[in-house]
## 1
Amino acid sequence: MPVSEFTLIEKYFNRQINGDSAPSVILGIGDDAAVLKVPQKHQLVVTIDTLIAGRHFPDSTPARDIAYKALAVNVSDLAAMAATPAYFVLSLALPESDEAFLKQFSDGLFEAADEFNIHLIGGDTCRGPLSITIQASGYVPDDGYITRSGAKPGDHIMVSGKLGAAAVGLASKTGEIELEPALKLQALESLNRPRPRIDLIPTLREYASSAIDLSDGLVGDLAHILEKSQVGARVQQDFIPVFEWVKQNNAYTYALIGGDDYELLFTVPEERVTALMQSVSNLKLDISDIGVITEQGYWLHNQGGPTDLSSKQGFDHFGS
Amino acid sequence: MPVSEFTLIEKYFNRQINGDSAPSVILGIGDDAAVLKVPQKHQLVVTIDTLIAGRHFPDSTPARDIAYKALAVNVSDLAAMAATPAYFVLSLALPESDEAFLKQFSDGLFEAADEFNIHLIGGDTCRGPLSITIQASGYVPDDGYITRSGAKPGDHIMVSGKLGAAAVGLASKTGEIELEPALKLQALESLNRPRPRIDLIPTLREYASSAIDLSDGLVGDLAHILEKSQVGARVQQDFIPVFEWVKQNNAYTYALIGGDDYELLFTVPEERVTALMQSVSNLKLDISDIGVITEQGYWLHNQGGPTDLSSKQGFDHFGS
C-alpha cells in the first residue's frame, strides 16, 4: 500500500527538536512553514544546493551516504562564509515511496545533522527522479561573514586538509584507476562522507580576508576568488597538501581539478600569517600555505616551470 | 557551445537588488551564500517547495508560467503563516542548457518576484530532469505567525476567492472536459498563474485563529487544520465560493479535492466574525464564511444531506 507524503514526513523526518540545543527554532516541521528567531546582533547566512542521482553521486551510492553528503555540501558553504550552522530545510524527490531507502536516508541525514549541529525544520517530499535539495542557514555576528571578494595582493593563500582523495575515490569507483583495498576504502569515504570544516570557522573570522569551499576543485574555486577580488595568484604545486596516492603517482590533476574536496581555501594578509600559523599549530589544525595573491595573472609553479591557469576552470556543471 | 553554470546565473538571475526595496539583504547572489539581516522584533518564516515537470505541471507549460507558479506556491505558504514575503533562493535542474527556456523562465520569475515584493538572493543550477525548488522566507512581528493548530470549536471557517478554477483548467488541458474558449483561458490562467493571497496577511494577523493555504484541495487542507487543532468541522457546500463552471455543472469535486487553488482557508473566533466581515466589506476582500469548527467529526452538508469526510483526503503525492 502506498504511504502518504504526510505519513512519510511524520515517520522519518519529524524528529523532535531539543529546545536547549536549538533555542532559535520557534516552530519546526508540520505547518505551512517553520518559524525562527535570529539571535540579536547576528545576520543570517543562506545557501542552497541540489544533488541529482547519476550526476552528483553514482546511482549505486547508499542512501545514508547520499543524505550525509547532501547536508555536508551545504554546511561547507556556510563554513566558507564563517557562519555557524543553525538550521536546514529539505526537498526530496523520490521515484517511488521506498521505506527502506527513506529509513537509511533519514538515518544518514540526522547523523550528519548531529555531527554539524544543525537542525531540520521543514521539508517537502514528492515523486520524481531522485534528487535532494537542501537549503541551509547559519548565523554570523553582524558583518562577521567572509566573502570571495576580499583578497588583496600580498595575501597568502591557505588551504585546509589534503586534496584529491574524493576524486581518486570516484575514479576508483568508475574503474578508471586501481587502488589497493584499504586505500580505496579511504578514498571512497572522502567521496561519500565529506567533512565540512566547521572547526575552521573561528580561524576564518579571525584571520581570513576571503574564503571559498572547494567543491569544483582548487584551480576553479581559487579562480572565483581571483575574479571576485580582481586579483591574480601564484600557487606552488609542491606546497599543496594532497592525498598520499596523488603524490606517489604524480597525479596532481585529481587534487587540482578533481573537485568534491569540501576543504576551505582562504587568503590571509601577510602581516597576519605568523599569528595564524602559531594559532594553527596550537590548535593542531591542518592548514597549508600554498602561494600568494598577486596583482594579476594566475600561475601554477612546479618542477616543470610555471603553468598559466588563467584560461582553465574546474568542474562546471554546464561546461564542456 | 555549452554555456557555463556561472555564466547562466550571471546572465539570467543576477539582477541587482535595490537597497531601498530590500534593506535586509546584506549580500545577494555571487558568493558561497547570501547574507540577511532580519528586522528587529521580527521572526523569520521559512518554507520550501519543489515543482517537477510532468507531475506538478504539464510538460507543455510555458517556462514563464512554470517560474511564476514555482514562486507563487511558496509565497502562498508564507501568506498562510501571515508572513510578509522577503527573499527566496532557487535551485533549478535543467536537462540541457537551453537559453531560450532560461530567458523566459527568468522573465516569469522576476515578474512574480516584483508582484509579490520578494527578492532572489541566491541559487544553484545543475543538469537533470526539469525541476524547480524554491525556498522562500518572510517576516512576522515576534510571535505574530498563524499556524494550523489554533482552531477552536465555535470558530467560523473562512475561505478566500473562488475554488476549482485551476482543477477545471487542468481537466480541460488533459481533455477530460470541454470548455468554451474564453472560460478555458480563464481556467488555465488560474492553473498557471496562481495569485498567492498576500493581500490577506493583515486580515489573518488581526482575526485568524488558524490558517492554511489551499494547495491540495479544500477537503484535504481543512483536514490538516482539524488534525493539528484536534477539532472537527461542519462545512456547508452551498456556501463554498466556486468557479462559475463548477456551479453550473454541479461539479463540486473540482472545488473540494481538485487542488492548486492557492487561496487561504482560515478560522476566526465567533466573537470576531462581525468585525471581520465589516473589515472585509470595507476592503472589498472576497472572503466567504463556509462553516464552523466543532468538537469532532468532519461533515459536508449539501442538498443530499450530510457526507462524512473524515476518511477522505485531498491530493496526496504518494497517495493512491
Note: The mean pLDDT of chain A is 90.
## 2
Amino acid sequence: MHELVERLYPLCRSITGDGVRRTLEIIGELVPLDVHEVPTGTQVLDWNVPKEWNIRDAYVKDPTGAKVVDFAESNLHVVGYSVPVSARMPLAELRGHLHTLPDQPGLIPYRTSYYAEDWGFCLRHETLESLRDGEYEVVVDSTLADGHLTYAEHVVPGRTSEEVLISCHTCHPSLANDNLAGIAVATQLARRLATTSPRYTYRFLFAPGTIGSITWLARNRDTVERIRHGLVLACAGDGGGLTYKRSRRGDTQIDRAVGHVLRTSGRPHRTVDFSPYGYDERQYCSPGFDLPVGCLTRSTYAGYPEYHTSGDNPAFVLPESLEDTLETCWEVTRVLEEDRRVLNLSPYGEPQLGRRGLYGALGGRSDTKQAQLAMLWVLNLSDGTRTLLDVAERACLPFRAVAEAAQSLEDAGLVREWNP
Amino acid sequence: MHELVERLYPLCRSITGDGVRRTLEIIGELVPLDVHEVPTGTQVLDWNVPKEWNIRDAYVKDPTGAKVVDFAESNLHVVGYSVPVSARMPLAELRGHLHTLPDQPGLIPYRTSYYAEDWGFCLRHETLESLRDGEYEVVVDSTLADGHLTYAEHVVPGRTSEEVLISCHTCHPSLANDNLAGIAVATQLARRLATTSPRYTYRFLFAPGTIGSITWLARNRDTVERIRHGLVLACAGDGGGLTYKRSRRGDTQIDRAVGHVLRTSGRPHRTVDFSPYGYDERQYCSPGFDLPVGCLTRSTYAGYPEYHTSGDNPAFVLPESLEDTLETCWEVTRVLEEDRRVLNLSPYGEPQLGRRGLYGALGGRSDTKQAQLAMLWVLNLSDGTRTLLDVAERACLPFRAVAEAAQSLEDAGLVREWNP
Amino acid sequence: MHELVERLYPLCRSITGDGVRRTLEIIGELVPLDVHEVPTGTQVLDWNVPKEWNIRDAYVKDPTGAKVVDFAESNLHVVGYSVPVSARMPLAELRGHLHTLPDQPGLIPYRTSYYAEDWGFCLRHETLESLRDGEYEVVVDSTLADGHLTYAEHVVPGRTSEEVLISCHTCHPSLANDNLAGIAVATQLARRLATTSPRYTYRFLFAPGTIGSITWLARNRDTVERIRHGLVLACAGDGGGLTYKRSRRGDTQIDRAVGHVLRTSGRPHRTVDFSPYGYDERQYCSPGFDLPVGCLTRSTYAGYPEYHTSGDNPAFVLPESLEDTLETCWEVTRVLEEDRRVLNLSPYGEPQLGRRGLYGALGGRSDTKQAQLAMLWVLNLSDGTRTLLDVAERACLPFRAVAEAAQSLEDAGLVREWNP
C-alpha cells in the first residue's frame, strides 16, 4: 500500500483533469475500474460540473530572474484551478496572490479556488520573508476549459444486490495521508474481498471530493437505496489512532459494526457523532439521502498540523498504520457479512452442553473459557429479538467468538438460523 | 435595579398588609400594575385567604426599661403575623417566644406564624445571651383582622394570547436577595420586553409566596392553559452562580431554553431537577396544574448562610449579579421568541453555498467560521423534525448563531419556515 | 445462623445422596420441609436425573502405607461423583487423578465429575510436592447407582397466590460461604416471614445447583407463572460487601427493590447486570422461563480466593455478614409487600398540611424534616402514574419514609389507594 502512495504522490490531481485520469490508470492496474467522464456544465443536484483544469508549468521569478516559487518543485505551489497568467508586477501587487502559513514557516499550504476564477501561489512563509522588493515575473501555464469530470467505480459482486459503499476522494494533489492512504486501503480491501464470495455487493468509488460524490449521487439517485452500509475512507495512514465518525442516523448497522470492532480491538480509538463538516459523508448524509455511511480515519479531518500542507508527504504515512486501517475495515466487513439471528431451540433451562461435548467434564473450576461463555450468551439471548452483534455487544465479547459459538450450537442442533 | 432593592428594603412586608401595598405602589412607578385585593376568608383551592396583618410597633424592654429588642431597628425582630400583646413577664416565660440562631449569633433570624395565632420576637443570639433575669415588658402593637390579600399583575401584550409567566414573591420583609432582587429583575425584564413586539404575552405576577400563587391559580384556573412557559424568579442578586430548577415535567421548552442559554453562556451554573420544595413552582407544578414553570435563582432556596437572616441585606446583593440574571432572562426570552422550524428546500446533497455568497471562495483552509458551520448544521438537520433550538443543541452552537444562519439561508431561498 | 453453618459443614453433600438428605433433615428442624425424591433417569427438560452417588471412605496410601490423602480428614479430598476404585499404581499414573492449586499450595480444591464417570482426589499442592515415587494404594469406597435426586420446599403462605421464590443450592460439600451461608439466611428469612401475614406466598427452594433447579422447573413448568419475584441466595456470609445481580430482564420489581434497598442503605455494594454464568438464576432466567429472579451474594461467584477451596470454611463466614444479608433480604420483602399506588385527591396546588397537623407551624426555618419532604413528594408525584417505590427513587428517599408519608396522607384523607 505504501508503494502505491509513493507512486501516486507526484501526480497533480484536482477535481478534474489529467492528473485524476493518470491516478485512476494506476489504481486500475490493481483493480479493474469503470471510469466515468461527465461533461462540463452537466447539472448535478444543486451544482454544475465545472470546467476542466490542467496545468503544465508555473513559477515566480524574482528581479534577478531566479525562480523563487516553482510548480516543478511541488504542485502545492500553485493554487488549484489557477487561471493562466503571464505578467510582471511589483512584489506589493504580487503579495495579494501569495499564500503562506506564518505559524508553520517551513511548510507549503494547499489552497484551491475551484468556483471563483483566480490565480495564486502557495509558498513557505520563510521564502516570502526572504523576497526583496522589485519587479517579479509570474507565469501560470494552465488551461481552464470545457472538458470533463472523471471518477471511477470498482465493484466486487456479492450474492445479493444489497450494496456496501466504500468511497474515497481523488482530488488532492501531492498530499499523502489525505487521501492517497485512503485510496491505497480501499484498493487493498477490494482485492481481499474479491477472494471471498460475499453476501453484499461492494462498490468502491474513487471520485473528487464534494463535486464528485454529488455527481455520483445525481447519476445514481434512483439506485442509492441499494446501499445498506457505507464508509468514507480518508487520512488512513498517519500514526494516530483510528477515529470513526458515525453516520447522520448514528445507530445504523455500520455504526454499530465499526464501534464494536474498535471497542473489542484493544486499539486506541475514538468514535464521534456525525457533523456536517468533513469529507463526502457530508453528501451521503445530506437529509434527502440520509444514507447509512460513516467515515473512518486515523487523525481526523483538519486534525493534525501537517493537514493540507507539504508536511503531508509519504514519510508521514506509516506502512503499519495502513495495515491497521485495512485490518479494521476487514473486521468490519466480517461483522456485516456474518451477523445474523439464531433461535435457541432449547430455551427452557440450559441445554446439557456437556453431553454434546461442548462443555468441560470436570466441574468446580472457576476459569471458564470464552468459547463456553459465548455459547451460554448465545443460548440465553437468542430468543429471536437479538442478532449475534446484539449478543456480542451485550456480552462484551468479540463478534468472532460469538459467531463461532453460534456455529457450534447450530452444528449441535441447539439453535437454528432465524429470519422473521 | 439595586436602587429599587434599597428603596423597598425597609418596608415591613408579609403575606398581607400595607407593606405589600406600599411595595406594589413603588413597583407601579416603574411598570403599570393591575392590583388585586382578595377578601379574608375567600376559599382558594384547598386554602382560605387569612386575616390581614398590620403592625405599627413592637419592642421588649428589660428590667431597666431599656429596649433590648426593637421593631423600629429591624422588622425581622418580630415574628410575622404576631398577634397583639402588651404584658410583663419574667425572662424564663419570655424565652419561649424568643427565636435566635445559636450558630450565627450576630444575625437576626426571620420567622413567621401565619396559620397558628402566636407572637414572638427574633433577635441576635448574642443579645439573648446578654439578657439578665428579671421582669420584662413586651409590646406588639399589631392588628390581625379581616381585610384583604393583595397581589398585582403587569402584562406586556404579545402578538398571540399564549403567555409566559414570570412570578416573584412579595411577602418577605427586610430581606434583599430573597426576594427584592427577584422583584427588581422582573421589573426590568418587563420594561425591556415592552420595547419589543413579542410573539408571547408576558404576564408578571407579584404576589405573596404560597398563598399568593395559590390565590392567583384559584382565580385563573380556567385560563392557566394559556401559559406556555414560565419562570419563578428568586434570590436573583447574590454573588453565586446561576441555578435553574427544572419544571416538574423536566423537558419542556422553558427547561430546554434556560438549559441551553446557561450551557452556552460560559457562566458557572447548575441545573437541577424539580423537587416539591422551594418557591411558588411548588404550586404551579402541583400535579393538577403541572405547568411548564421552572425556577431561576443564583444561590438556591435555603442555600446560603445569610438565607432568612438579617445578613440578607442590600449589601449582599451585587449590581453585576442583578445584571447577569436579567441578561440571562433576556436571552431565554430570545430563544422562546425566535425558536422555529425551517425546512431545507435543497436536501439532496449540500446546496452550493459559494455560488450564493454564503461560503468562502478560497478552499483548503481548515478554519471554518461558526457562521458557515451553523449554516451546514441548519441545512443538514432541517428535515422538518427539528427546531432551531434542536439544531443548536445538537451542534453545540449558540442559539443566536443558528437563528442567524437560518435567516441567511431563508433569505437565499434555501430553507423556508415550516409549520406542520 | 452461624451455628447452622457449623453444624452442616462436615456433611458430604453432592447433587444426590444421603449427605443432601441429612442436610434437609437438619434444616427441617427449623422450618417444615416438603422433601421430594426424583428417580434416576427421570427426564427433566433437556437433562436426565443422574445416578445417586454415596461415599463411605476414600484414601491414598504412599509406599510406606501412610495415608497421604484421606476423605475422613476432608470430604473435599475426593472428586465429587468419583466411581469406586481399589487399586495400586505408581505415582506417575496416579498423578493424572490428582488435582491441586499450585498458586494456593496450602488449600484443597473442590472438583466434581457428575456427568463423566471418573475418579480423582483433590489435595494441597504442598502435599503433592512431598510425594515420593513408588507404588501407591488408592481406595474410593463409593456407590454410583440408580436412586434419587433429593430437594425440598418450604412455603410461607400469603394472602395471594402470587409467589416470591427464594432459592439456594444444597450440593456443595464442606464449603461454608458457598452455600451453607445462603441456606442459613434463607432459613432465618422464612422464620421471620412466618411471623407476618404477607401479601405474597413465599416459596423457599433447597435444591442441588443446576440439575436441582432444572428438575424443579421441569416439575413446576405450568405453575412458574405464579412467581412474581425471586432471589437466588449464595455466598451470603463472607466479609465482602453485598452484590446484586439483576434478572435477565434487568428492570423488574425485584431488581428495582433490591437496587433501592442497597442504594439507600449506605452499605458498600455493587449491582451488576445479568450474565448467563453463576448460580441457578441461569436456569430461572433461561429465555423460555425468563423469570424475574435476581441473585444476591456478598463476594461474587468465583470472586474470592477461597472460592471452591478448603479456605471456604466456617471461619470464613462472619455472623455479622449473615445478619446484614438477612436484614437486606427483609428490607427487600418490605418493599415488595408495601409498594402500592396512591392518588392525590387534592392535586391543584398543595393542600394545606398545617391545618391538618402535618406541617410545622413556625415558618421561615430552612430545616424541613424528611417526613414533611416525603409527604410533599408523595403529593406531587401521586397522579396515578407512579408507585411509592417510583416516588422513593425519584425523591432519593428511603422507601420506608415514603410509605409512612403515604399512610399519614391517607389517614388525613388527602390520598387514597389507587388500583387502575
Note: The first helix of chain C runs from residue 2 to 8.
## 3
Amino acid sequence: MSKKVPFAEVKETIRRALINAGLQEEQAEICAAIHAESSADGVESHGLNRVPRFIDYVQKGWVDPKGQPELIRAQGSVEVYDGHLGIGITNALFASKRAVALAQEHGIGMCALRNTTHWMRGGTYAWKMAEAGFVGISWINTESCMPLWGSDVRSVGNNPFCMAIPHKDGPVVLDMAMSQYAYGKLGVYRLAGKQLPFPGGYDREGNLTCDPGAIEDSMRILPMGYWKGSGMAIVLDLAAAILSDGKSGSDMDAEGKGSCTGCSQIFIAIDPAIAETKEEAENIVSRRIAAADGAHPIKEGSRVRVPGEGTLARRKRSMEEGVTVDETIWAQVQALAEGKMDITDIASR
Amino acid sequence: MSKKVPFAEVKETIRRALINAGLQEEQAEICAAIHAESSADGVESHGLNRVPRFIDYVQKGWVDPKGQPELIRAQGSVEVYDGHLGIGITNALFASKRAVALAQEHGIGMCALRNTTHWMRGGTYAWKMAEAGFVGISWINTESCMPLWGSDVRSVGNNPFCMAIPHKDGPVVLDMAMSQYAYGKLGVYRLAGKQLPFPGGYDREGNLTCDPGAIEDSMRILPMGYWKGSGMAIVLDLAAAILSDGKSGSDMDAEGKGSCTGCSQIFIAIDPAIAETKEEAENIVSRRIAAADGAHPIKEGSRVRVPGEGTLARRKRSMEEGVTVDETIWAQVQALAEGKMDITDIASR
C-alpha cells in the first residue's frame, strides 16, 4: 500500500499539482517543499496526504492564494498581521521570519497572525526558527474537535503547541497537539485492526477506551493528560485570539468552514545569545541531552530520545532511500500534477 | 485534621515565623502574603504546608535571604538576572514585574532568572501578570523527579508551565506540572486509602497503575499525556537554562541540593492591547468563555469550568469562611511564629 519515491520527485509532483490548482510559481515551490519535507520527516498526514484537501480548500475559496499578510499594528518587538485567508504555509513562514527579525533586534520578538489558514505540520515553524538559531515557540487555534474536560461534546480545538531549541546536531523540537491522539491516528489504528497503546477517548457509554473506532464514533477524543490538555487548549485559544485580535475556536465553530479556516497563530522567537555566547548555549544543551541519552531505558538495548531526534533520523533515511508514500494518494497527486484529474473527483470520494 | 483560620491570622502567623527565620520585614510580609494566598486558593502544598521546609532551606543556606537579583544582561525587550539563591518568591515577583515593565514598553517582554530558588506555587506569577493586564507565561526547571518517556529512572523535572489570560471577571490561569500527578498528591490519595482516578505511573513491575503507594515506591510517576509531557518537560528545561545561562535539571541533579535550588525561570509578558483595544480583547475572552460555559456537561447539572474559575471560587470562600489548614502543620507554624520551636525539631521528624 506504500512505496518509496525520491524526495525530489515527491516535491516536483506536488509543485506541479499546486501550479494546476492556481498557485503562483514561488508559492507552489515553497509549499511543495514544506509538504514533501513533512512526508520525509514521517508526518505524512500533513505532507503529501494533505495536498488534495488543500487544493479542495483553494477551489472552495476557503484558502485564497492571492491573500497576503497585511501589517495591522506594530509596537516595539511585536507585529500583528491579517493573513487575509492566504496560503497557511506561506503566511506562517512569513510570520516566523518576522518573529526572528524582531528577536534579532530586540532579543525577543512576537508575530501574531489572524485570519489565516491551516499551517499544515505545526512543528515546521518552530523548527525553522531554531534552525535560524533562535528558541521558537508557536501555536494555533483550531475549530472545536475535542470535548473540554467535563464535557461530552466537542468544545475546544486541539490547538497544537510547538517549541524548538537550537542545537548544532539539529534542533530539539516539541510539536504537540492538545489531544492525546489525532483523529488521523485513530483511523490508522482502526484500519490496521489495532487497539491504541493507551486510552484515547471515551466510548458512547462514557468509558475510557483504547478502541479507535469507538472514539471516532463518540467523537470524545481525550485531551492529553486529561484536565491538563483541556486547560492548556483553552488558554492557547484565548491567547492566540486576543494577541492577534483574531478568531477564537468558538468563533470558527460559528462560521462552520473547513479545518482552521480563519484561525489565529502566534510566533515567538527568542535569541539565546541574549544570555551568553552561542558556544555556552550549545554546551548547556549538549550536556542536558547527554544526560537524557544516558537515562536508563525501560527496555535493555533501547535508548531514550529527545523530541526531534527520531524525526532527524527519519529525514536522513528518506533522503537516502526515498520518501514513503501511500500509493493511492500518490496516484491522486500525480493525476492532479498531470492535469488528468479534477479535485472534485477526489474530494467527492 | 483540618480547620478554618481567618486569612489575616494565617498570613500574620506565617509572617512572624519568617521573621524568626531571619527574613527582613518586607520579605516576610511579601512571602507571608503569597503563602497565605496559595492556601486560600486551595494550593495548600505550596502555601502554609511549605513554610517549614522553606525555613529549613534558609537554615541550610540553600536559600539566602540576602541574595538579590543582579542584572547580568539587557537587550531590547529582554533582561537576564542572577538570583544569587535569594528567596524564590521575591526573586520571581521581581522578575515578573520586570517582564511586565518590558512589555509595557515593547509589546512583549521577557525576564530570565538563573540561580534562583523554589518559587512555591507556580501559577502565582502568571496570575500576577494577568492581573496587571498582560498575557503571562512562565516556567521553571526542577531537578529530575520523573522518568523521561522510555526510561524507568528519574531523568527530567516536572517543570511547571503557567499561562494566564487577563479577564475582567478574573484571569484564566493554567498552572500545570509536566507530571500527571505531583508526589504530594500521591501521598494524599495513599493516606486517604484511595486509588487515583487515572493511572499516575508505573509499579516496580512496569505496569501502569492507579495505586499511589506503588508509584511512590517505584518513583516512576507518569508524564502527563505519556510522551507529550516528557517531551515538553525537556524543551522547557532546555529553554529555561539557555535563555538564562543557568542550570538545567541535570546540572541541578549533579549538585544534589534541595528542591529547585539554583533553578532557572522564565517570565514572558505580552500586552493584549498591541492587537486591539482592551475592550475588544475582553469581548473575545468573554465570548470564548461563554462558549466553554455552554458546553454540554457529562453529568447533568454540572458545569464545564475554565482554568482558574475553581480557584477564584475557593479564594472567595476562604476569605469569607477562613482558610482551610492542616492542624498539625498549623501548630508547627504557630510554634515557629512564637519562637517556641526550632526548625530542626520539625525537619528531623
Note: Chain A has a mean pLDDT of 94.
